[in-house]
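Progress report, Aim 2. The chain analyzed during this reporting quarter is listed below.
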Amino acid sequence: MRKKVFPIVLFLFVFFTVSCLAQRNAFIPVPENQEHTDFKTLILMENIIESKNGTVTGNLSTDGMQANSLPLWLRAYISGGIEELERLDSYKDKYMFIAHSEGQNFSAMDRWAQRFSPVRDTFVFVASRIEKKLIDSVYYYPDDEYGSFFESIMKKAYGAAYPGAVKEDTYWLKMKVNNENNYTESYLFLVLISIDKALMQNIISNMILESIDNRSLSGSQRSAVNRLRQNFFEGF
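Predicted structure tokens for the chain:
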């Protein structure tokens, strides 16, 4: 049986989706918009003017070709996504996240990066990863298969702080952006965040336990939640 895509995020279907979800009384988190736009598509060699480390040279492409001066973690992410980044020896025992912001005012972007708090601001990235795991693990809608457990754990995930989160690095790129045949300059700032795997798994495991209320779950929902508990961190 093919899995249905959830949640539907195409703009043209927003009204239809909201209407349907209201009828189902489902809980849909509304995260920040940063991590959900893949900034890899913004990084094109021909558009890079400057970087934190100076001029960028060499070929940069999605097939793994690397450009000189870009940090290893960024090259790994561009090459193979977060999975490739987490395979690096420096991060193999950590969960990694990248926050990003884009704008024309260097000072404003720099302040954003400097003030970014990994403990306070990482929740949206962890919660999005938890949500993806829940969605990927079911055939229908998470609130169908998990009942009230889905709403409960997502509320906890989006409201949590992660005291073990660490800001590993910050980096910026200056790029030219084609806007109706007129080029403008824009800055892309990146913040690399890590959380120790054992610590984060302990936090999420506690969320799962605190979110289970067997009194409000059907027999099939309890079975689905128990299966989820057993293999939650496989491929997480």
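The chain has one domain: 33-231. Confidence is low (pLDDT under 50) at residues 1-37. These observations will guide the mutagenesis work planned for the next reporting period.
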